[in-house]
Amino acid sequence: MADLNQPLGRLRLGVNIDHVATVRNARGGDVPDPVRAAALAEAAGADGITAHLREDRRHIRDSDIEALMTQIAVPLNFEMAATDEMQAIALRHTPHAVCLVPERREERTTEGGLEVAREENRLAHFIAPLAEAGCRVSIFIAADQRQIEAAARIGAPVIELHTGAYCDAYAEGRFDARDAELARLRDMAAFAHDLGLEVHAGHGLTYDCVRPVAAFPQVMELNIGHFLIGEAIFSGLDSAIRRMRAEMDAARRDAFGEGVA
Question: Is 59 a catalytic residue?
């Protein structure tokens, strides 16, 4: 077990390209190309690319996944619902990582963490063939002890903590709620780490609120998408990613000293 009083090294940044595809699909056709966005993100310093193939194909398409598997060098994190259709697609492509997320057709974005504790048996059987195929399985969950314990029991090596409630409270100036959510994330990151899980985090992170989460020593990766794609409209994708990378690295240095980032 790592000594969390010592620096844990560079925090990885996964860039979610879903909303490049959202813009493309709003008009139809092939532009803007999310695969091109992935290549630009890689060149700007992204450590991985995240893409969520939803059941209704509202943004990422099957052909995007096929192209990403052949055209990017960094790992692909394939977000998906725990359905037979998505499992078959993941097994066909065997991306580096598969992140299981809850999915409801009526939601605009993923609104909460996966309910693992109520579906342990089903999810344990669901992730087994993915792990056997060489995919690193991650579970997107709330910062809740019960869900983290269930994720560990089903054999998922990685969890991604949902940071949305913290980010919303930060943006809305609800300072007591912000501090409570941040404390919950901090405590549950430490708890998950102690169980032997690798900890990631994401959802709603911006330049303004990323540093406190990036400073958690147990968190090894942040996945950020919508905000970066939005900022890219004004500053370009390269600039947006480099600035986020700088914020993350500064948080790590402030927490652990020079030489970490």
Answer: no
Catalytic residue among 203, 221, 231, 247: 203
162 catalytic residue (yes or no): no
155: left (phi over 0), alpha (psi -120 to 50) or beta: left
- 34-44 vs 18-27: helix crossing angle, rounded to 10: 150
Catalytic residue among 19, 42, 79, 93: 79
Which residue among 19, 52, 162, 193 is the active-site one?
52
All structural domains of the chain: 12-254 (3.20.20.70)
Tens place of pLDDT per residue across the chain (261 aa): 344 444 356 899 999 999 999 999 999 999 999 999 999 999 999 999 999 999 999 999 999 999 999 999 999 999 999 999 999 999 999 999 999 999 765 455 445 689 999 999 999 999 999 999 999 999 999 999 999 999 999 999 999 999 999 999 999 999 999 999 999 999 999 999 999 999 999 999 999 999 999 999 999 999 999 999 999 999 999 999 999 999 999 999 999 886 555
The verdict on whether 203 is a catalytic residue reads yes
Residue recorded with tokens 């939601």: 107
